[in-house]
Amino acid sequence: MSPWILVAAVVKVLPKKATPLVLAALGGVLSENAGIVNIALEGIMAGGAFAAVAASYYTRSVALALACALITGALLAFILAYFAIAQRADQIIVGMAINIFAIGGAAYLVSAVFGQPGASPQVAGLRDESAMTWSAAAIVIALHVFLYRTRAGTHLRAVGEEPRAAATAGINVAAYRYGATMAGGALAALGGAYLSVGETDIYSDGMVAGRGFIALAAVIFGKWTPFGAAGACVFFAFFSGLQIVLQGANVPAQLLEMLPYLLTIVAIAGFIGRARPPASDGIAYEP
Amino acid sequence: MPDALRRAGNPLTALAAALSLSSLIMLAFHANPLHALAALFQGAFGSEQGLAETLVQTSALLFAGLGVAIAFRAGLFNIGAEGQLAAGALCTAVAGAALHLPALLEVPLCLIAGAAGGAVWGGIAGFLRARFGASEVITTIMLNYVAFLGSSYLVSGPLRGDANAPETAPISASAVLPPLLADTRLTAALPIALAFAFALAWWLRRSVAGYELRAVGSAERAARYAGVNGGRVIVQAMALSGALAGLAGATEVLGLLHRFNAGLSPGYGFTSIAVALLGGSDPIGVIFSAFFFGALQNGALAMQALAGVPKDLVSVVEGLVILFMAARWFSHGRTFLRRPAAVADAP
Amino acid sequence: MIAGEPPGGVVSLAARGIIKRFGDLVAVDRVDFDVRAGEVHALIGENGAGKSTLMSVLYGLLQPDGGSIALNGRETRFSSCADAMRAGIGMVFQHYLLIDRFTVAENVLLGREPGRAGFVDAAAARSEVATLAQQYRFSLDPAARVESLSVGARQQVELLKVLERNARIVILDEPTAALSPSEAQALFTVVRRLRDEDRAVILIAHKLKEVLALADRVTVLRHGRVTGTLPIEKADANTLAAMMVGRAIDLDAREPRRTSPGDIALSVRGLCAARDDGAQAVRDADIDVRAGEILGVAGVEGNGQLEFAETLYGLRVESAGSISLDGADITAHSAAERRAGGMRYVPADRQREGLVLDFDTVENALLGDQRRTRLGAALNLRLGRERADEINARYALAGYDPARPARAYSGGTQQKLIIGREMTDETRTLICVAPTRGIDIGAAAIIHRQLRALRDRGACVVLVSYDLDEIRALSDRIIVFSEGRISGVVMPESADDITMGNLMTGAATNA
Predict the structure, then answer these.
(1) Which of A155, A165, A234, C265 is an S-S bond match for C291, by CB 3.0 to 4.6 Å?
(2) H/E element holding C460?
(3) How far apart are CA C190 and CA C192, in angstroms?
(4) Alpha-carbon distance B139 to C52, whole Å?
(5) C144: exposed, middle or buried (Cβ count in 10 Å: 0-12, 13-18, 19+)
(6) Is A218 left (phi over 0), alpha (psi -120 to 50) or beta?
């Protein structure tokens, strides 16, 4: 197969692979710029994916399904925000807890709600998921403008860099942190919803398959900026697409599936340099 | 004594809160929490078989939990127990099938092979962190996926035994860990795990290497001042952590499955994080915590069969336990969960 | 009526009977303090005297448990620092509250950015800040990122923040702590200008010379109470010091030596070292230190002295050059090996470098020697206990308990623990960095005494300090670092402010 045909085939699959990553990564960018480390993107994606399917099952409305996903993401992220801000707990541990709780909870609910373990029945899904892809691209631009050109965005970044300075300037640190984290959670959940009602029209255990963590890596790789993170997602998605396209060629499936994960390791280890996160990322603020 | 009791009080409160919340969830789905709890108890402790099986789960969780705990004490988040376990299990299965020595030699060698496999897998993440500042949170998770896919590939192809299924050849008879109790799966894995727990408890508190590991985990700059090579300690801690997880896999192979197959890992990876946290990252605490989660995992099957509550609820309990342990309410003066002055400040 | 009032001048801010408690500790005990428009009122006292707490109350960061605050004669309450700022009070903290990654303009106008409909007009922000900076003759580029600025320039940004809001009452907390003598002079000019603009300036300081140069009135705090308020004409250094500690202390007095230096012990040739970020910190350092000598290392913070000290001890790898001790080349030796040869180190950051706060007293007593003193694979806890007991015997650690974690001790006690550990009979070479920074005068005097005793025992001491008075009081010889080089060697008798200032800023060298 000529390399160009290969690339073209991958590019065709790219939007499908990139969209959920980009949405989740943008959620990470939002919360981390306000100073909250969110490693629960994976669990929130699972929560969003499940919520969308459950809502679609009961209401047969895709719009409501997406709305439910957004709300679920915001709620799960609220748990992170609450324990991180009000309880000053370690954000990585809280994030891990949410991952376990959300993924396990979704598995539990699949059995409890649908009566069959492992996967839900098929539900009404999005007919044209490219709408979500375009929305994702628009959100990238909007988030960039928000963070770097508006007053609120500047205040949000100040909160993530030096909350004390922000507080003495009259900025409400907690409000920005709660808001950014919950909005970020909503975005990530939307990414999860893309996987379920967007692509496959069902929810199955483990369908997120590590994308939340790849999105997290994209945030770091992209230096905590919207365009950077989105670009990193496209980069990772390329290799994910490569795996699909090469299936059937004489390369073992598992080795191809490994590509995105191996690439993430390489990216994290080497080629980002010692990029600096927002100065107060992950550090609890004691007013 | 009062100090130990006070420290134990925090996990107990977290547990109580987690269980209460889970009961509420059960009630929401028209399940009876008391019924479920009874079924869980019945499954975990109700019979000799049940108790033995609980102890089987306990030993694996104890190994993996010790690994995660050691990493925490060094200031590292090892989320890769799952992958390290698989790596260890695979190495053990290969060694067990290839070697045909008397049991007294074979078993230790197979265990060492498992520990080595896990150590290498953990050590990679440690090296990446020490050398490049790469967050071990991300690398260990990625390495989990690489381990599953890699081992799956290997047992479908190059390492496949004779069977039609994707698994290795069965291990030699001399490698098998016989059951300690007839008709159960309980093997010498448990006493071995307990021995490691006590050894690690001594090692952390009384040995120079343990002191240096704790210093790196708690005050990286002071450790540097004290002449400790932080990078080396990080790699060693991750290797040790991985080795312990690898031993979990090794005992799984030698005692239970007697081979490695693609679906081996029973999901101990995330549970071991809960085990380590609930045990306060202290080896002795981890013993109790592993027993608790072993009972929970074992009982969950009975809970599903007898009370109709899906066993995944156990994951919900785990997540809640970790959440409440992380909260300031429940952990006064917890020290080993503090983020260290990182090499690079990425999560 | 508060003693020492100058005639005229409206009282801008008056605090009466302020009480603030933290649990059992009364940090501020019925303090009366006021400041007038067109006056500089200095507030001095030892660490822990209550200065910061009092200022936090005045600035709205803390709520008082008793007493009242009146602004321009009217009683008010500040429930937050936003309140205080709105009332026209501005504070420049000792640890600057600046966002490194943001520009000067973004920092100055944080929270009040110009623009429409929620967007920020960056150009307007920059020009506004440029105009203001020009007014006060600050040479600042509004578009420059704060992380690229020097300490003095950063302080100017902090001042701009306060001036942009047109604060009529300005509080300055230890403003010259990290400035060179010439930068401090520039700051004094600004402070005088603020006074001439009829603002009220509160100056928190502990450098008595600055207070005497700048203030119109001085109030002294001790243990949370006012020991006196004097007009500047009636104040001199010794009186003020006595009011601060309750007894006469003259730290500046040089004690005559009873011993004389011996042979050359530590010898450094062509030493070069880089900072963590790769930039060159130490360039071609050449110096000899004798046994029985204290070598003072002066310089504005950040000019390479810290890296120099770290390289001497083995915490930092040199990029070129050599170090020898008693004739033997120790350049390749690790810190542990240097310790074995009798070298000890008192680090700059006691809480994060000198101690593991989670370890107990015994374990901390072994820090640095844990490997050397081990028994097989085990820690020598018995030896650790002996050492801890000895340190307690020598230095009287408040609340000493071998099993207590270091975190539970006060800052001064923690420093004593480190000093006790590092200054033992085994110590033949001591490198110490800012050993009395943040320590009250009483404890500092004890530490100075111990340093002299160590020197008299024949040890060689390298003392890095950012306090010129300390350097002058203790050193037998002084070297000055400027931009990584040793710009001069000075004898203490000739180390006046002008000479030192020139050497520190690189305006002159005599190396």
Answers:
(1) C265
(2) strand C460-464
(3) 5
(4) 45
(5) middle
(6) alpha
Q: Which residues of chain C have pLDDT under 70?
A: 1-8, 47-48, 206, 245-253, 506-508, 511
Residue C25's H or E segment, with its range, is strand C25-36
ipTM at complex level? 0.86
Interior CA angle at A249 toward A246 and A255, to 5°? 65
State pTM to two decimals: 0.83
Distance CA B265, CA B242 (A): 15
The partner residue sitting opposite A279, judged by closest CB among C82, C100, C111, is C100
- Residue C336 with chain B: CB contacts under 8 Å: 227
| Cα–Cα–Cα angle for C8, C10, C12, rounded to 5 degrees | 145
Give the separation between CA A146 and CA C117, rounded to whole angstroms. Answer: 12
Q: Which residues of C touch B7 (CB under 8 A)?
A: none
CA A100: distance to chain centroid? Answer: 16
- Span between the terminal Cα atoms of chain A, in Å: 61
Number of separate domains in chain B: 1
Contact present, A222 and A268 (Cβ < 8 Å) = no
Separation between Cα atoms, residue C301 and residue A49, nearest integer Å = 55
Q: CA-nearest residue of chain A to C115? A: A151
Where in the sequence is the domain holding A250, given as residue range(s)? 3-271
A176 inside domain? yes
Question: What strands lie across the sheet with C280-290, from one edge to the other?
Answer: C280-290, C264-274, C320-325, C328-329
Name which of A79, A92, A254 is nearest B347 (Cβ-Cβ).
A92
b or e along A12-44 (b: 16 or more beta carbons within 10 Å of the residue's beta carbon)?
Answer: ebbbbbbbbbbbbbbbbbbbbbbbbbbbbbbbb
Contact C82 A170 (CB under 8 A): yes
Across the interface, of C82, C110, C118, the residue whose CB is closest to A158 is: C110
The CATH number of whichever domain residue B286 belongs to comes to 1.10.3470
**B222-277 confidence digits (pLDDT tens):** 998 888 989 999 999 999 999 999 999 999 899 888 888 877 666 777 889 889 98
Distance from CA of C17 to the nearest CA of A (A): 26
Please report whether residue B323 resides in a domain.
yes
From C218, C245, C272, the end of a domain falls on: C245
Q: Does C23 touch chain A (CB under 8 A)?
A: no
